[in-house]
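Hi support team,

I submitted a single chain yesterday and got back a structure, but I'm not sure I'm reading the token output correctly. Could someone confirm the output below corresponds to the sequence I sent? I've pasted both exactly as they appear in my results page.

Thanks,
R.
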Amino acid sequence: MPNFIKQASSLILPIIVLVLVPLSIEKNWTIAVDSLSIAGMIPIAGGLILLVGTISTLTRIGKGTLAPWSPTSKLVVGGAYAYTRNPMISSVLCILLGESLIVHSTAIFIWLALFFIINNIYFVFLEEPGLVKRFGSEYVEYKRNVPQWIPRLRPWIPPV
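Hi R., thanks for writing in. Yes, this is the structure output for that exact sequence:
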């Protein structure tokens, strides 16, 4: 499959999580111009920057995508991945938080919490054991040094 098609198909997941699910669970998309809505723009902007940066890192360094059907062929420990093991999910959580604030939506905030719980279970029981199988001691060392969710203050640089 050509790289462009891989990249385009990997955007299906963020579109479902960030657009289709919120549109289906929140019926009132009225945006009030108030401090809560304005504050919601901050996590959306940060989340979008992190999302684009993470996708770029997965492509350049990992030679793959965020999608399980086109995984990276190299372990990615650079960019945002030097601070936390799950920057892609962190970016999605930021965007969902911003969406919930902008439209004052408890439903989207509940979706954010549910999405986090589902992903945490998925990473612990499926993704991380698979990464250990694919990358062995390299991933075990990375996992030992880089936290799953709360970012490090300084990037982790693997030993040479």
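A quick pointer for reading it: The first helix runs from residue 3 to 10. Let us know if anything else looks off.

Best,
Support desk
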